[in-house]
Amino acid sequence: MKGILIAGTSSDAGKSVLVAGICRFLARRGLRVAPFKGQNMSLNSFVTREGAEIGRAQAMQAQAARVEPSALMNPVLLKPGGDSRSQVVVLGRPVGELSARGYHGGRQGELLATVTDCLEQLGATHDVVVCEGAGSPAEINLRRTDIVNMAVARAAGLPVLVVGDIDRGGVFAGLFGTTALLSPDDQKLVAGYVVNKFRGDRSLLRPGLDMLAKLTGRPTLGVLPYTHGLGIDEEDGLRVSLRGSSRESAAGEPYGRDVLRVAVAAVPLMSNFTDVDALAAEPGVVVRFVDRPQDVADADLVVLPGTRGTVRALEWLRAQGLADAVRRRAAEGRPVLGVCGGFQMLGERIEDEVESRRGTVDGLGLLPVRVRFAADKTLARPSGSHYGEPVAGYEIHHGVADVRGGEPFLDGCRVGAVWGTHWHGSLESDGFRRRFLAEVAAAAGRDFVPAPGTRFAALREEQLDRLGDLVEEHMDTAALLRLIEDGAPAGLPFVAPGAP
Predict the structure, then answer these.
(1) In the beta sheet, which residues pair with residue 53?
(2) Average pLDDT over every residue of 250-268
(3) Active site residue 104
(4) Are residues 71 and 99 in the same domain?
(5) Looking at CB atoms within 10 Å, which of 65, 358, 409, 457 has the fewest?
(6) Higher pLDDT, residue 242 or 285
(7) 18 burial class (0-12, 13-18, 19+ CB within 10 angstroms)?
(8) Are strands 53-55 and 93-99 parallel, antiparallel or unpaired?
(9) Owning domain of residue 67
(10) Which pTM value belongs to this model?
(11) Active site residue 340
């Protein structure tokens, strides 16, 4: 099998971005490419055509590779919940809830076999598999239970590039230390480094790169510049993608009447916050994540997003004073949109013996909906039409909604200026999004008019091309292709901890 594994000095070092960029670079060369991450921990997930749940980052990387996302690309997904427990999703289906100790102390051998089998299947049907590690491969306390970093590289004989974020500082210590803490067998696979998010004059960095090569015997194959607005789907972290419309107005002045302000409640265990990326892509729409009642009162549209803890998020809304602020908005006829868990919170009541095990809990009472949590998870790719426009999305939820009135809205309902649906991703449908925003603007008394030329899918493609450009322009692509073809060079020196 031909491939490469991208490891990192830490979480958020740039692994997902680099994998996506390499996938797009290779796809442009006519190669059949597949992304792969053996184990992912994220609340941002996606549903494949076959109805399997995988990390959104791997779905984005598949788009970069110009292939259809598959459960093979992310065989193990951990979805954090409360009390240090996570739902374990294997091959796209939930198999149970485990604590961190229980997960690392139990099924690793079985899961590693699943991971390596999926990798082999991808390798058999693709020219190249570009693998992503998780966190850092130098977490020495977790080495025995590793199924995503060096264990994958060893199993498939893959060369490894380690990427570090220089914008955070300490990148040389991170790259050197990560290598030095690996076992001799693992070090044999570490073939080089990539520096991410560099600002300034590269000539000033050169002495450090030369010293790193002398210390480790390994070259740096790329220095990627700090680039704003890459617009990729994050594993976690509240970031508005694409046009980055979370920015404030110029000179702190109030936004004009032609600007639509969207406030997203930053609820605990937020999932699939990427739903608002399509709003942020619209010129004249400003998206912010908020946790104060005054921010809700000031907005033209409030979004209650999905969450892995609906009852917990509902309690947080009440404790923050946001629940009352949302109710006041609804009474005044001002727009509110609930998606998935947010939709459930807008209903009359929630019966939950599955997620929170809190029994019956009162909702916000703004929609005629009663929700019962089922043991089985709904995973679906629905499509239909609304406002006379085609619309598609995906569903990931345990809550089953009994809609008892209101106007139909996708699979949910609408009462006045309050909308609710289980459909993630519906706002990526351009015509539907424009009609919805026009209605929001009218209810908010704004002069905002959606731009007819905004095509979300095209914007996403542009961003993926930018990632491919970063690889092509700022990496030694000849060396990268040699690693993929031939594997890690023989005779790479051992780097002793603490040396020199």
Answers:
(1) 47
(2) 75
(3) no
(4) yes
(5) 457
(6) 285
(7) buried
(8) unpaired
(9) 3-219+476-486
(10) 0.91
(11) yes
